[in-house]
Every structure is written in C-alpha cells, then in structure tokens.
Amino acid sequence: MAVRVNHREPLHRGRVFNMDRENVSLENGVTLDMDIIRHPGAAAIVPLIDSGRSVILIRQYRHAVGGYIWEIPAGTLEADESPLVCAQRELIEETGYAADRWEKLGEVVPAPGYADERIHLFSADGLRRAEQHLDADEILDVHEIKLERALKMVDGGEIQDAKTLTGLFLLTRRRQDGVG
Q1: HSE toward the beta carbon, residue 104, CA cutoff 13 A
Q2: What SS3 class is residue 143?
Q3: By CB count within 10 A, which of 71, 115, 132, 177 is most buried?
Q4: Would you tell me how many other CB atoms lie within 10 Å of the CB of residue 171?
Q5: Which residues contact 89 (CB under 8 A, 6 or more apart)?
Q6: pLDDT at 100
Q7: Which pLDDT score is estimated for 129?
Q8: Is the dihedral of CA 153, 157, 160, 166 positive or negative?
Q9: Domain boundaries, the chain
Q10: Is the pLDDT of residue 179 over 70?
Q11: DSSP 134
Q12: 42-176 CATH pick, 1.20.1260.10, 3.30.230.80, 3.30.230.10, 3.90.79.10
C-alpha cells in the first residue's frame, strides 16, 4: 500500500510559501493529520574568488532566528524558473557579482519533516562586478573570506545555516576527490 492523501486543507497562503494540512494514510496503516509547508524551491551559490582560494559570504539579518547569520547567497525560484537561472539572478542581486562558470554541486532538502523545499546548490567562478539589487527586506553585507577561514567558521559554530554548511561541504568534498 502506498501513502494515500485522504484530504487536503489549505491553512495559509503566503508570499513565499503555503501551508496545508493533509490527512494521510501511511503504509503501516496509521492515519494522521500532517501540516506541510509547500515551497517553490530555491537556489544557493558558493561564489569563488581569488582563484578559488576565497568565497563570497553574506552576513544577513534573519528575523526568524533573531539576528545576523553567515550565509551563501540564495533565493527562491520564481514561477517556471530553472534553478540555474535563479542562481545567476540571485548572485547578482545579493552580491553585486556575476559569474562566467557554473557547476551544480547537488541538492539539499533542509526540513523534510514538515516542508517540501529543495535547494539546488551551485558553485560559481570567474566572478566579475555587476550591479547589486537587494530586495526591500534584505539587510546584508557582502564579505570575501578565505575558504580555509570559512571552514574554520563552520568548525567554530559561526556558520550554522544548513544550505551554507552543505554548499561548503560539497565544494570541499569535490576538491578532495579531484573534481572541479
């Protein structure tokens, strides 16, 4: 028996995501209500500079966590937008850089217990200046940080954002494996 959705009730329709309550019957015979965040997905970028020895990180205000956090640039997919096009747009908008070369690093599902969001992760290099276009709700500073220092920030708990941790891990793993 596959999982069956018996009933779906919209709870919230928002600017970025929707929330539904679904009554589901699971394979083990249990039937229950589940609240699920429906998100269009996102793209995130590990921008490389200084011949790949440094990365561009942003220090961005995030009201939900009560302050500033370190992140790689990222943004939500627009309707019918490919993850790569979203990544290219967001890199320019948030950092004021465009990139000549792009590589898909992987994907991450940050909160599968209650959300369907999938974040597509890319590395970008061959950076050149472009015009930054922050959204009205974006309060951030752009920083060029040595990759070695960024990894120490992970080890020291300064970087806690899941997409940033995953992006830095995948980039470092590819380099260790001799890919990219």
Answers
A1: 10
A2: strand
A3: 71
A4: 25
A5: 75, 81
A6: 97
A7: 94
A8: positive
A9: 4-38, 42-176
A10: no
A11: -
A12: 3.90.79.10
